[in-house]
Task: structure prediction
Amino acid sequence: MSHLADWDHPEPLSVDSAPVPQYGSGSLADLLPTLAAGMGVPGMTARIPELPAADRNCVFLVDGLGWEQLRNHPDEAPYLHALLGSSRGGTGRPLTAGYPATTATSLASFGTGLPPGAHGLPGYTVRDPATGALMNQLRWQPWTAPGTWQPYPTVFQLAQDAGVHSAQVSSPTFQNTPLTKVALSGGTFHGRLSGEERMDLAAEQLAAGDRSLVYTYYAELDGAGHRYGVASDAWRGQLMHVDRLVQRLAGQLPPRSALYVTADHGMVDVPFDEEHRIDFDADWELRAGVALLGGEGRARHVYAVAGAADDVLTCWREVLGEQFWVASRDEAIAAGWFGPRVDERVYGRIGDVVAAARDDVLIIASEREPKESAMVGNHGSMVPAEQLVPLLEVRS
Result:
């Protein structure tokens, strides 16, 4: 009978069983401080000990280029695939993106060198404690004072102040966005439309100083994954293009340079059926006691009405606990999901309940989030397919 009881009432996933990112030694937030330390920037420490110092460092961040997806596509990315052994200083190991594994959070972690609990962008959408409204941190809607929301200097700013030539080469669209300001500002911004132009200009900027820190970015791989999935021809075609771009940049490196290719997250394709896509807007149980639904399908922040947080936690654990790690705010913080510390100003941005997907499932919201709910490829949680990112290396 005990076996039957276990079958009827399976235990929810333990919060402590979630694979927490390697903050402090092997996360995306540790990359720029390590490179800056190698260039003598005051206050920076080499947190990723495997990386040897270089005078000129360029980071090419490819949105959505997950470690597992790259390993699974050797034919589409032969150049990148040949570099897999160079990842993380020749150890052949990936970095972890950080939680949640989503663009706004990861770019802020990358640019500031801080985990989400400190920089304060802990999700795709989070509640602003000052207004009680949801804040989209990728699109910065509704507008919020950037320096108040994220007050720490970026590593680019600190490097520039220390006499390192610092530059960003990206789409002109991003030049004046609040997210760029809080995550990537410092030095000079150079807007170029095509990937080829960005590679050529990144190489020029790398050569422009005796010590240089250059960042460049490509978004279209992620876009193809969201629209068509990482199993699609469109995604594979974008990966082939990325492979050629990296080879183009690597071939132009000036002396004493290191090129690092990394990403903000990986991605998983989620089937379009009720079993894999649980619709919050059509589920009265999940909606009970919930004032706001934040985050995204695989990494939810759930904000309860006053006094209902415990009931919401119990309900979400009962309904979703076999497929999601479901934690209270304090449990998620204590487990280190958002890093070793959470600043006071960030505490209320985190959901009363935090739900991170383990299985290939989503909590969609078909009415309030129609575009996001229609995406094929998704990311945000802590499983390897979305959490692990490469750190490929080419040196001159």
